[in-house]
Amino acid sequence: MPEVEFDVRWPDMSQQWVYSPSTVVEDVFTAGAAYSVGEFVALTREAMGEASRRVQERWGSPCSRAAATLASVEATAARFPAGEVQVAGFRR
Questions:
Q1: pLDDT digit string (tens) for 73-91?
Q2: Digit-coded pLDDT (tens) for 17-65
Q3: Which residues is 87 bridged to in the sheet?
Q4: What's the CA gap between 34 and 45, in Å, rounded?
Q5: Where are the beta strands (DSSP E) in 1-92?
Q6: What is the CA radius of gyration of the chain?
Q7: Can you state the angle between helices 37-59 and 64-77, rounded to 10 degrees?
Q8: What is the spatial distance between Cα 64 and Cα 62, in angstroms, rounded to a whole number?
Q9: What are phi and psi of 72, to 5 degrees?
Q10: Are 31 and 88 in contact (CB under 8 A)?
Q11: Which residues contact 10 (CB under 8 A, 6 or more apart)?
Q12: Which residue has the higher pLDDT, 1 or 2?
């Protein structure tokens, strides 16, 4: 499956490259767009769920890396009760 990383800028301006096992993130997020922290987490949950489903469809088991990505995003987002997260871009 084509893997994608997306460049995230958190409300404190820290940057993180976030892994996705699928290109589904390119359908869920728009490069250059900003999302509230809550919306970003919800969209990441949606994207990683779909990515894991696609992996399971192809390989027979859900994707543990998608689950790890979601856990990492949720842990980082917990530090920010408010603010915006920008998806700066994608790379394959």
A1: 999 999 999 999 999 999 9
A2: 999 998 999 999 999 999 999 999 999 999 999 999 988 888 888 889 9
A3: 8
A4: 17
A5: 4-9, 15-20, 34-36, 84-91
A6: 12
A7: 170
A8: 6
A9: -65, -45
A10: yes
A11: 16, 76, 79, 80, 83, 85
A12: 2
Contact 40, 33 (CB under 8 A): no
Around 92, how many Cα atoms within 13 Å sit in the side-chain half-sphere? 8
Which pLDDT does position 73 carry in this prediction?
97
Structure tokens at 40: 């970003």
Residue pair 73/44 in contact (Cβ under 8 Å)? The answer is yes
Q: Which residues contact 17 (CB under 8 A, 6 or more apart)?
A: 5, 6, 7, 8, 91
